[in-house]
Amino acid sequence: MALKINLPETKIVLLNLLICVVVFYIVYYVVLSICFAAFRLEMLDGWAPFDFKTNPPWINPNYLVLLVSLEITYFICGLLFALIVEEWVWDYAITVTAIHIIITAAVMSEFPLMLHWWMALGSGLILMICGGQVLAYCLFKDNFIHPVLDDF
Question: The whole model's pTM is what?
Answer without folding.
Answer: 0.84
